[in-house]
């Protein structure tokens, strides 16, 4: 049992999950109340104790079996993803494949990263041993978005589970079926306790989870919601991880492989209809290769087929945002080299040039299949412009000689060099942003530690005559300690 049981006597509100391409109802789910959410968190407490008791190996074994269920029934899961988000089957598969890779990595590495390790005890306590281990937090509340409804929430859920926590997951109201599918699959491999539960509903259900006494909230979604969650979590001093929006740049140096950069920009901007937190939204290109780059981008963009290579906008309200950004860019002197059209469901792949840097299309998250391209004198200007937003999630660099230096200078949590999005597919790398893109990390060792608390233990192995922490300490001991420390650390050079 993973879903929160509706109360039999109560008349329960429900909501429909729709296919964004047709508005066909693909599922109906309960709107869970604050009471339901509290009950789920209470149940999760017991589950957490059992799950933590399995230890690293026991949990790894269940996580591997979960992976086997997901991989064997991948087509079924992909169909749910496509129905709820509108994305093509191949893109749905790509996100599932990446998520599977992360489950495998987290299961395999949790002990190594979180298990007990010795630390040096230091000179004054050389008769001690010191160690640290990372223990589970207890119950983690995960609140997810709809754009990558498998990959994104599993970035938190997988790592929280591998670290020994139970999870109560509130999927987006646009993709409740995907959330339920994942939890049902997990229940097949851990039927004993509700270690991963799903609660469904809108913002109010998510807000109830934040206030339900969980030990941490892992939120992925918009910056505006992230701020509300953080404010609410402050009431109970509940720690939060915030994975929020982005306005990711791609920069192209004069010595870059221009064709490869253009291909990455086109895929990075338009795949998943541009509804990607780390999607390419802005491009800055060295003047020496600008014309060649723009020509190639336009050529490649003309081959992109909306409805085939990417789906409709999943969230109808986003169409207005995209429409406003394009209209503002054009009104302020920008030119659309391709596309520009925003229909009832689909947005044409849109390449914008000559857009002022202070316009909405350059400063705000568009979350649609658009990109702005700007010419820069040199890479200092590219870095300055790339860094001039409040966001700082991912970035892409196309360059040869200076690639690593450019990557170091970009204000972003993650950088991909000479390929799009590769950091997201590397399970060992931490994922997260700076500024308005949030804080905290999922994935990799940092992602495991995010869902665990360090416990420090110092153990005396044998008593020594030089006792420091007793009222019996003598002046002679104090003298000795002073001389010892001055001798060790007091040298001026
Ligand atoms: P959203 O902020 O509207 O909603 C995200 C989730 O928060 C949903 O489940 C929603 O029901 C819930 N929610 C809404 N109000 C709440 C409240 N007051 N308290 C608690 N929960 C509440 O975001 P979205 O439209 O679903 O997702 C798109 C956004 O997510 C984009 O900005 C995108 O960049 C971002 N995103 C970020 C990452 C990342 O890893 N940084 C990944 C994917 C998406």
Describe the structure.
The chain is of the alpha/beta class. It folds into 2 domains: 8-245 and 442-453, Aldehyde Dehydrogenase, Chain A, domain 1 (3-Layer(aba) Sandwich), CATH 3.40.605.10; 248-390 and 394-427, Aldehyde Dehydrogenase, Chain A, domain 2 (3-Layer(aba) Sandwich). Helices cover 42% and strands 19% of the residues. The chain has 17 helices and 18 strands. The protein has helices spanning 34-53, 55-72, 74-85, 89-114, 151-162, 176-189, 203-210, 223-234, 258-270, 290-301, 316-331, 360-363, 379-386, 403-409, 422-425, 444-450, 475-489; strands spanning 14-18, 25-30, 117-119, 128-136, 139-143, 166-170, 196-198, 216-220, 240-243, 248-252, 280-286, 335-338, 350-353, 370-376, 394-398, 414-417, 438-439, 452-460. The strands form 4 sheets. Strands 12-13-14-11-10-15-16 form a 7-stranded mixed sheet, sandwiched between helices. Strands 7-6-5-8-9-17 form a 6-stranded mixed sheet, with helices on both faces. Helix 4 packs parallel to helix 5 (151-162) and helix 9 (258-270) crosses helix 10 (290-301). The longest helix has 26 residues, at 89-114. Mean pLDDT is 96; it is low at 1-9. Bound molecules: nicotinamide-adenine-dinucleotide.
